[in-house]
Structure formats: C-alpha cells, structure tokens
Amino acid sequence: MDTSFIPHEDIIEEKYMSRFFQVLTASIDRTRMAVSVIFLSVVDIRDQKEEDITVFLENKIRQSDVLCHFEAPFQWGLILSQSGEEEACAFLNRLFSDMSLQDDLSFSASIVEIGNSDAAFDKVVEKGRESLKLALQTGPGHIEYVKDFKKKSLVHLKLSILEENDILRNVIQTSLEDLKIDGFQLEIRTFQDGYDFLNSDWYLSSHPHVLIMNDILPRKNGLEVLHTVRHLPNNKKFIVFMMTQRNSEEDMVYAYESGVDQYLVKPFSLRLFEAQIKRVFERFWS
C-alpha cells in the first residue's frame, strides 16, 4: 500500500501548524471564546487512500477552521476556532457518522479545549497525541478529552458607582463586593458625581466596565456621562445601569435610545439588581 501523500494547497503542513495555532489562540482572552484542537486518526487503514480522506475532511470543516496533515501516516489535526469541547465533540460525531457511510471508515480522536491565550503549542500537541493513542487503543469511534488547558483567564472587570447619596452608594458597593462569581477579578470605585468620574483616567482603559449611576448628579449628570462614554471609540466595553426615580415610558425609551443597558427605578430590589449584574458577567464569558 502506498502511504505517500502530497498536501493540498489548503492543507497546512505540521511544521506550519504552530503559527496558525498562535494566531487563533491569541484572541481568546479578548473574545472570551475557546479554541479546540482535534487529533484524528484511522483505526483500520486497510486499503484506504490518505489523500481521499484528507479531501473528505477538507470539505467538512468551516472556512474559519484549520486542517493539518501530520507527518505520521493517516493522522490529522484540526483547529476549530471559537469552539469549545462540546462543539468539537458534536463535530466529530457528525464526522464519524458521515465517514462510516463512506467507504466504511473507522476513526478515533482526542479533543483539546484551549481556554486561555497562554497554552503552549508543543504541550498541546504532546497531550493531544498521547490521548489519541489511548483513543485508538480503546477502539473505533472513541474520543479522549484533554483537560489540561481548559482553565480560563481571569476577566478583569471594572465597576463604577456614580451616586451622590452616601448611604445608597455604600449599599451598592457592599452588595457588589459580596458577590461570589468565579472567573472575575473585580475592581470597584465610587464617585459622588459625573464630573469626578469624567476627570479621572479610570474609564479610559480597555477593560470591560460596568457603570452604575444615577441620572441626576451634581455638576455632570448621568445622561451627560452616558453621552461621553457612548461616543468613545471602544464604547461597547461599557454596560450602563441607570438609576432613576423617573418611570414614565417616555423617560425609559429616551434612556435606552441614549445607550442605557438596564434601567433601575428607585426604590429597586437589591436581589433583582444582583441577578442583573450576574447576568452581565455571563456575557463576558460563556
């Protein structure tokens, strides 16, 4: 049987795979989307042609994914962008089903989910190949999972409280400090008015920023602050909670059209507020 193989133009050779891996994983901490690497091999080679299988794999992946042919015969690597372990497993199950219908092929695989931008490519390949070997020994259709690189980086999240009333400001701060949310490093600052907030450099970093403020404040009010942050180049990093005593439909519509994400009519429930905050955190990493 001839096992020689000449890669297609769209197939990455193993020696170039690390570069594509680095490009795709570099944005994980920013996008909060995992990347998965699949190691795939044929269980029973028999008279199968390596090139035919490669063409089949090439037709199954998305344009945003990368297919690599390893130097070892009948072994491939797939980098699935913005896909966690669950999505990679679903992809493999569909692939195994399609392959079994075509030429009665049998495959096994391993999946490595990358949850942060610090994962070293050589370590990922080492663990992935070790697990692939175990999968092949177990039998056709078996999938091994590598857990070593799933840990997510901490999300550095800024929270600003703009409220003139000392008691309410302290209550909100204490409530936020007491929240137990894994995966986040919270940094909280309070301001008595919008003027102090806008004259600080606190809001100019690129970190995600939750802004909780009253609509009526001395010197610079909440709507003026909202107008300023929504005209920044990176304004989407801000999640804005507007506290107010105004509950008319017209006021609410105006606030939302101006860029408010949540509208809190005083007096509001702290339990409801905490639930809303937790839901916001989930948006930064799912």
Describe the overall structure:
This protein is α/β, with parallel strands linked by helices. The protein has 2 domains: 135 residues, Reverse transcriptase/Diguanylate cyclase domain (Alpha-Beta Plaits, 2-Layer Sandwich), CATH 3.30.70; 130 residues, Response regulator (Rossmann fold). It is built from 10 helices and 11 strands. The strands form 2 sheets. Strands 1-3-4-2-5-6 form a 6-stranded mixed sheet, sandwiched between helices. A hairpin with a 5-residue loop joins strand 3 and strand 4. The N terminus is likely disordered. InterPro entries: Bact_response_regulator, CheY-like_superfamily, Sig_transdc_resp-reg_receiver. This is Response regulator. Pfam families: Response_reg. Keywords: Phosphoprotein.
Notable features of this structure?
286 residues; alpha/beta; Alpha-Beta Plaits; Rossmann fold; 6-stranded mixed beta sheet; 5-stranded parallel beta sheet
Q: What is the overall number of helices?
A: 10
Tally of strands: 11
User: Taking all residues together, what is the mean pLDDT?
Assistant: 87
Q: What gyration radius follows from the Cα positions, in whole Å? A: 26 Å
For the record, the CATH architecture of the largest domain stands as: 2-Layer Sandwich
Q: How much strand?
A: 15-25%
Strand order of the largest sheet: 1-3-4-2-5-6
Q: Just give the CATH class of the largest domain.
A: Alpha Beta
Spans of at least 5 consecutive residues whose pLDDT stays below 50 are 1-7
Q: Helix-strand pattern, N to C? A: EHHEHEEHEHEEHEHEHEHEH
Q: What is the total domain count?
A: 2
The termini sit apart by 47 Å
Helix percentage: 25-40%
Structural class: alpha/beta
**Biggest sheet features:** 6 strands, mixed
Domain Response regulatory: 158-281
Keywords: Phosphoprotein
InterPro entries: Bact_response_regulator (IPR050595), CheY-like_superfamily (IPR011006), Sig_transdc_resp-reg_receiver (IPR001789)
Pfam families: Response_reg
